[in-house]
Design goal:
It is built from 7 helices and 11 strands. The protein is elongated.
């Protein structure tokens, strides 16, 4: 879910003008309910909800108990924020159930990876181990005008990915080894579910494979190049990133088929 955050104030109390802005935002965003998350000692969940409901009602806004498009109220200690949904991956035009394939990446995780990359229109996005194209499909739904490049050594996976992304003309999908692939477009974003070394064990080990993939992508990289990668082999990723001059930041921990993994953001150390 994509949200923007409206910060009302950084300390108690909430001023009347802030409630005016909040009511206006409810109308603008067509919010019809309120979900709240309160942590810390400065707020009482029941009191906060009652106060917000009263102030909104005074301004002609009455959130329903059951809502299809709720706003979010998040309070942590003495800071509080309201957020409104702008994009929901389930509502993306043209979304279809993904083709079934053993060990394929869940589309919700792929969507989270794309969102975490904070992509913009005009991106050139490359998935070096695309499988059936789950990540690139999510990128296409989020950014229909992005240039998508994908590669995989499995011909069956490439065929499935081409079928899946057939309606996106800027998708260039090929059967190729990511360690030696030839590319033309300057890449701005590398995003991939890297092999964990469980079902697919790269020759030379995961660390060597990760480094080779990163080095190859860097040879075609634009100045704004960065990467969002999923792996359970944290040690291999950090070693590979250090070898090519990248820093690693963990974005989220996930569990895939019982295997703990994490989503990582990589960027040149000079830009860190």
């Amino acid at each position: 879910t994509e949200i923007y955050t409206l910060s009302l104030h950084d300390a108690l109390p909430i001023w009347p003008s802030a409630f005016d802005r909040l009511a206006a935002s409810f109308r603008q965003e067509r919010a019809d309910g309120l979900v709240r998350l309160v942590a810390g000692k400065n707020f009482s969940d029941a009191e906060v909800h009652s106060r917000i409901a009263q102030e909104l009602a005074r301004r002609g806004v009455r959130p329903a108990p059951s809502a299809e498009r709720p706003a979010w109220f998040v309070a942590v200690d003495d800071k509080y924020y309201f957020a409104f949904e702008r994009f929901n991956r389930h509502q993306a035009p043209g979304r279809k159930p993904p083709p079934a394939r053993e060990a394929s990446l869940p589309d919700v995780v792929a969507a989270a990876m794309v969102f975490a990359a904070k992509p913009a229109e005009g991106e050139v996005i490359y998935d070096p181990v695309m499988g059936t194209g789950t990540i690139l499909s999510e990128a296409a739904l989020m950014l229909p005008r992005a240039t998508l490049i994908g590669s995989d050594i499995d011909p069956a996976a490439v065929a499935a990915a081409r079928k899946r992304l057939a309606r996106f003309p800027k998708a260039n999908l090929m059967r190729a080894d990511a360690r030696s692939i030839e590319l033309r477009s300057p890449l701005t974003l590398l995003i991939a579910n890297l092999p964990f070394g469980k079902q697919f064990k790269p020759e030379g080990g995961t660390r060597a494979f990760y480094e080779a993939v990163l080095r190859r992508a860097l040879s075609f990289a634009a100045p704004s190049f960065r990467a969002v990668l999923l792996t359970s082999d944290e040690e291999a990723l950090h070693a590979a990133a250090a070898a090519v001059g990248f820093s690693c930041t963990k974005l989220a921990a996930v569990t895939l088929r019982g295997e703990p993994a994490a989503i990582w953001h990589l960027k040149p150390i000079s830009a860190a």
